[in-house]
Structures are given as C-alpha cells and as structure tokens.
Amino acid sequence: MNFLQTERAVLDRLLPGLDSALAAHPLTDLERAPSPAIQAFREAGGPGLLVPAEHSGAGATALQAVRAQRAVGARCPSLAVATTMHHFSVAGLVETARRGTGMEGLLLTAVAGERLLVASGFAEGNTGQNILRPHIRAEQRDGRVVLNGCKKPCSLSRSMDLLTASVTLTGEDGVARLAVAVVPAKTPGLTVRPFWGSPVLAGAESDEVVLTEVELDPQMLVATEVTADAVPDSLNVAGFLWFELLLTAGYLGVISALVERVLTRPGGFGGDPTPFLVDVEAAMLAVEAVAMAMESEAWDDTLLVRALHARYAAQDAIARTAPRCLSALGGTAFIGSPDGTYLASAASGLTFHPPSRTRMAQPLREHLDGARLRIG
C-alpha cells in the first residue's frame, strides 16, 4: 500500500531499523512505561536525527524530519511525543551553536556520538500559564548558576541523559528574562517524581522533574532577550517552529495509524477512501509546506504563524477523521482490540500542547493587524 510509504522510506534511510523494530511489538507493549520503543530509538541513532553532519549526526532537513516523525507516530504515539521534545531541544542547541562559545557544538557531537537522550523542560501543563514564563528560577551565586523549580509533565524523564530547561534569570538591570539551561541528568539535586496518571501516551515517560539547589556551570546557560511581554526572540521563534511542526507531524502519524487500520482491515476495504485520507493528507501537506519554507525563507513571525495554522488545521483534521475511522472499523474491532480507541484518544492529545488555539486567538488577531507575534 502506498499510504505512509514515503514517510517510512525516509525513516528507514535516516534511522535504519527503527520502523521494523517498532512494528515487531504490539501497540499495547509500546505504549506502556517503560517502553521498548525508547531503546529502539536510541539503538537506531535517533538522538542524532537533527544533529548536523559536522557533529556526526544524520543532519535531517526539516522536510525529512517531519516525514520521519509521522512514520514514528504511526507506529508508536508515545515515542513520537517523547522524541519531539528531544528533537526540539537538539534543534535549539543547533541554533545556539551558531552563535555560542563552542560548548554547544561539543554537546551536539556527544548527543549524536553517544546517542544521548535530551528531555525538554519548557513550561507547559498548567491551564492559563504562559509558556514563556517558566517555573524554574536561576540565580547567579559565586560564579555558579543555581536552579530551583520543577517541570511537569516532562517527557523522557526516566530515560534522559540531559535536560534542557527554560528558566527565569534576573539580570543586573533587574529585568527577568528567559534563559535555557542544559543539565546532565545525574546532577545532584535533580530528581524525578511520578506524575502521569493516564494510560494514554504513558510510554513517553512524562513525569515530574524537580530541581533543588542544582548547581550549574554558567557555560551551560544560554540567555535570551525574551521578557514578560512574551514576544519571542529569534532563538525562540526557531524553537517554536521546530516544536509545532514535529509535534503536528507526530500526531498526524497517530491518526494515520488509525486510517491505515481502516484501509487494511480484514476482508479488505473497497469503498471510497477519501473520507479517511483527504483531511489527514491535506494537513500533512501544510506541515510539509512550512518545513520546505524553512529551507529558503526567514524564520520569523510570519513563518511561525503559518506553522501554527498548520498545527490547528491538523487538530481539526484529527477531530473529523477519528470518529469516521472508528465507525468504519465497526463494533467487532472495538470489542476485539483496544488499538482503535487508543489511537483515537492519543491523536486528540495534539489539542493539549501549547500554545492552545484559545490563548493564541488574540495574539494572532494582533499579528494580523501588524503587531509582533506574542506567544500565549
């Protein structure tokens, strides 16, 4: 079948063996914690997907990355969610390496060469909380940086080798700004607590990470110019672009797994496939269009708005497609296997990631009228 053929070919080329390793497990096994999917991702070289070739990584383009992520989501929803956070963090390191001190390049080489997993401790998970106002505080003391706070949920919390976290840092001018810290998982004061209570996406290991008097070398902290007005700087715009596209592609992979079950159901499918395909494929085309634009256009507010539009269009596509698929699979499939209802539930998770459409309504309206884009 041609459906998902392109995406799986890209995944096989960039991360050989991962697709077949995931396909060898029942969905229920992959979605539990601990999940064999995370180790399979590590063994296939997944941590280096977005690491440039000069740092021993796969050097995937944005288009290749979103296609690979869709293929991952079609096999293991939890892995797609968890690795989106890893790739998002790595992409941030790639951007800072272009303007940094050299430490970022060494980290990238280590991530690819040693297949390190990077968890993302950026603010989300609280209704009404601005995602550019983190819960982790950074203080400068005697030539060191000290971190206190928590991140929940934090995917890959049990398997991570490094944590990248957004923190609030108050400068000498008294202004609190956003900064990004890179914390080795074995640093004293870093602990993990149970948090995720749902069986849906449990394999992503999204528990709570707590930082208590965690001391860090200042070189492991990257300051930004983002303040309380929540207008992202160039580094944050780049991060949000990667986050929205990879996240959306992964969840489109999840709903694609449900579509695939309809198209390959026992007894065959001889009807009109468009009610199951058109919305999902159109949403993926929108994601791919923004990914291709990242290769040739400026990474600015306008491109980020297009990424948000693609993400919200995908949410609508998922909401329309999931019930159609469940209806087409019928009661026997519902009784015989939990896969269909699980995939429908997991695919709806895209709605809960930041920034929500509700919180972005006013910023998008203001941007339409010529203002800088704020992130709600």
UniProtKB/TrEMBL annotation:
Keywords: FAD, Flavoprotein, Oxidoreductase. One of its GO terms (molecular function) is acyl-CoA dehydrogenase activity. InterPro entries: Acyl-CoA_Oxase/DH_mid-dom_sf, AcylCoA_DH/ox_N_sf, AcylCoA_DH/oxidase_NM_dom_sf. This is Isobutylamine N-hydroxylase. It comes from Streptomyces malaysiense. The lineage of its organism: Bacteria, Bacillati, Actinomycetota, Actinomycetes, Kitasatosporales.
